[in-house]
């Protein structure tokens, strides 16, 4: 078991990193550990956790902005925003159901994983709402990037680099997000019985309409239940009546449409946003494939019996695929098919041994790999932060 260090403040984070440099003892970086199965196993003897860096540091409803320290639970931030009639529009993704972990997802972990849910299809990802970070680099120096407003930058856009960096360029100590108002109500339109091609086509037709669809998922038939093609609408109640009717008319050739009221709609999108219950047995390896929506059904067809369970989010632009356990979690079959479709595949869940042996994230071309290494080294020249988390060391 690795030693765990839990600093109380940024000075403690800086001191921990400097000690790691001096001792040549790399650090694994984590929040509360709810996403511990995401990425390759870090090659480190110690763990630095940001759990104790907690608290909302700024909440300005009039400016639609919130800041919080890295260890602050996401639920705490969402509750504080809800009291002011606001929310994080990208619908933070919660990995606990996928990994069977406990604890509370933190703001730092959310940023490090760029953890975005079903509403990303219209609201953008976590990185699109992120407007400021405080980050302690692998030099043991804390830097601040961005602020309380969106603005152009020169040089490194550290805010965007931090999102999805998985702790490899620095330890996030604080993050600032742009927020949006809560909506008054929501409803979900459901078409039943469509196959994958027809379901994704219906999603794309709806997303191409002017009716502001905020969730678009196709859930294939499973365990005796019919396939469901789901389209979420949000806003004022009076608007929803008009937009629902217009969207039903648009989709009239796709089949009969049923409607979910507010609570069933929210329950459905929580299920989509957690993914696990739609993918079956937890022993299965899980992949996320990003691709042009129109190519998504073809990927699933090409993989054939390898696919144990799957569903589509983001209008088909994101495919969740579960495969039965194997020596490479299906990587040898999945990556060529995804590459042919010009997509990207990420191994989201597998054993530590498999994640250490295969590429978890999309393999990089040589030129891009050199660029990635150069950028990472500029922030972490001694290689003490989450070494090996994203890509295996290159000789």
UniProtKB/TrEMBL annotation:
Residues 1-182 form the FAD-binding PCMH-type domain. Transmembrane segments: none annotated. Pfam families: FAD_binding_4 (PF01565). It comes from the Bacteria. Signal peptide: none annotated. InterPro entries: FAD-bd_PCMH, FAD-bd_PCMH-like_sf, FAD-bd_PCMH_sub2, FAD-linked_Oxase-like_C, Oxid_FAD_bind_N. GO terms for molecular function: catalytic activity; FAD binding. Keywords: FAD, Flavoprotein. This is 2-hydroxy-acid oxidase. It comes from Hansschlegelia plantiphila. The gene is glcE2.
């Amino acid at each position: 078991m690795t030693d765990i260090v839990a600093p109380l403040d940024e000075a403690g984070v800086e001191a921990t990193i400097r000690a790691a440099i001096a001792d040549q003892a790399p650090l694994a970086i984590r929040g509360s550990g709810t996403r511990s199965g995401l990425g390759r196993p870090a090659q480190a003897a110690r763990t630095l956790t940001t759990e104790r860096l907690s608290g909302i540091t700024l909440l300005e409803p009039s400016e639609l902005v919130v800041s919080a320290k890295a260890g602050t639970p996401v639920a705490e931030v969402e509750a504080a925003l809800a009291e002011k009639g606001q929310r994080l529009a990208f619908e933070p993704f919660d990995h606990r159901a996928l990994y069977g972990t406990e604890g509370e997802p933190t703001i730092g972990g959310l940023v490090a994983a760029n953890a975005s849910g079903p509403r990303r299809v219209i609201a953008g990802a976590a990185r699109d709402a992120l407007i400021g970070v405080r980050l302690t680099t692998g030099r043991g120096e804390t830097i601040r990037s961005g602020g309380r407003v969106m603005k152009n930058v020169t040089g490194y856009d550290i805010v965007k680099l931090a999102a999805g960096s998985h702790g490899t360029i620095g330890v996030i100590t604080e993050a600032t997000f742009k927020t949006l108002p809560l909506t008054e109500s929501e409803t979900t339109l459901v078409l039943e019985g469509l196959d994958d091609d027809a379901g994704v086509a219906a999603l794309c037709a709806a997303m191409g309409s002017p009716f502001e669809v905020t969730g678009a998922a196709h859930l294939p038939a499973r365990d005796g239940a019919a396939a469901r093609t789901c389209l979420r609408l949000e806003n004022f109640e009076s608007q929803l009546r008009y937009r629902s009717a217009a969207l039903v008319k648009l989709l009239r050739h796709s089949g009969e449409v049923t409607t979910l009221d507010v609570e069933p709609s929210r329950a459905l999108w929580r299920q989509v946003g957690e993914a696990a219950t739609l993918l079956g047995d937890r022993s299965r390896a899980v992949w996320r494939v990003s691709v042009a929506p129109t190519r998504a059904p073809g990927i699933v067809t090409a993989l054939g019996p390898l696919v144990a369970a799957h569903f589509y989010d983001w209008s088909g632009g994101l495919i969740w695929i579960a495969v039965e356990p194997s020596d490479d979690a299906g990587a040898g079959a999945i990556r060529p098919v995804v590459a042919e479709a010009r997509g990207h595949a990420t191994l989201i869940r597998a054993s530590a041994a498999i994640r250490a042996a295969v590429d978890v994230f999309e393999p990089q071309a040589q030129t891009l790999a050199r660029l990635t290494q150069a950028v990472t080294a500029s922030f972490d020249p001694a290689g003490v932060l989450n070494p090996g988390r994203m890509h295996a060391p290159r000789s």
